[in-house]
Amino acid sequence: MPISETVIEDLTARGADRGIDLRPGLLAVEKRLDALVTVEALPFLETVSRYLLDAGGKRFRPMLTLLTGLAGGAPVTEPALVDAGAIVELVHLSTLYHDDVMDDPELRRGLEPAHRRWTATVSVLTGDYLLARASELSAALGVEVTRIMSRTIADLCQGQIREVQGTRSAADHGIPTVRPDRDHYLATIGEKTASLIAASCRLGALLSGQEPAAVDTFTTFGWHLGMSFQLADDLLDLVGEATESGKEPGTDLRDGVLTLPVLIALEEDGADSELARLLDRPDGDDVRRALELLEGHRALAMARDAARSEAAQARRELDVVGPGLAYPQALEGLMFLAEYAADRAG
Q: Cys bridge to 123: 14, 93, 109, 115, which one at CB 3.0-4.6 A?
């Protein structure tokens, strides 16, 4: 089962005496995903759809859906929760197929990206197919689930366009260029990452019948958790190994995407700094040198603090929602995932 076993084992060990074991629910999600990408009429489409699904992944978003549902008293194998977990994972997978066409990374989950293994056309259509399967399943869960996921998919698209606007390639796409700054970056990751993690939490709370105030609080928890998760991811792109992030370090720099630590470093060092000159239109050597300059820069520590601050805000939301829950023990699992997100920042 392509789930981060360390995360699952740690989560289960922490919750063993409190009745928290997500493994049955995650196994059910995995079986649902397997059925959803089975395409008997077109085996090639199934092969490509399984390419990233079988490559692994933490199944972070389904975990959140199951835990927020458990908090409301629903069993982790509740069919609606399992379907919702499959929906958010399919949407996440679809973005990977689409993003790789635009970003052209060397690796995705340790593999050659689908658009290189086949073609950009195949990768885009596969991402579209996974979105369609997620939408079909959303409709079966009702109008509100469909509305949440439709809005989330729109946010994901907005975030991708916003990100491109802040790169030197924006004009190549006919997109008005904006100068990236911290506000632009935070808005981008809010749409590209936090929106789907927030939706994952919202679906679990909603489908377990929780009160509207609790549903909103879990959604806010997911938003801050998603911000922390992406801030940590962007740090890993600068200081991590390919095995940690699933892509080659420095990918964002090669693509002209300026993340928070880079923006902070540029603010501190100035427009005439060596780092600014290297990032103007970097080649491979420029990226390597830029990574060296950033390695000891205090901007990394500031970005780590930002990731930890978002995780702390997420944990504070759990303090608000705890008393009225049917199964408050589930908050321990959510707290663990918030800590996990922050720990990824180093």
A: 115
Mean pLDDT, residues 249-278 taken together: 91
Long-range contacts of 156-162 (CB under 8 A, 24+ apart): 156/91, 156/95, 156/191, 156/192, 156/195, 156/196, 158/191, 159/187, 159/188, 159/189, 159/190, 159/191, 159/192, 159/193, 159/195, 160/98, 160/99, 160/102, 160/192, 162/187, 162/188, 162/191, 162/192
Sequence-ordered list of residues with C-beta below 8 angstroms from that of 213, at least 6 positions apart, any chain: none
- Can you give the residue ranges of every domain in the chain? 5-343
Summarize pLDDT for 98-109 with one digit per residue, the tens: 888 887 666 676
Would you give the end-to-end CA distance of the chain in angstroms?
27
Residues in the chain: 346
Query: Is the pLDDT reported for residue 199 higher than 80?
Result: yes
Q: 1.10.600.10, 1.10.8.60, 3.10.129.10, 3.90.1150.10: which CATH number matches 5-343?
A: 1.10.600.10
Q: Write down the pLDDT at residue 45.
A: 92
| Percent of the chain at pLDDT exceeding 90 | 66
- The b/e string for 312-345 (b: 16+ C-beta within 10 A; e otherwise) is ebbbebbeebeeebebeebbebbbbbbbbbbebb
The Cα 116–Cα 109 span in angstroms is 14
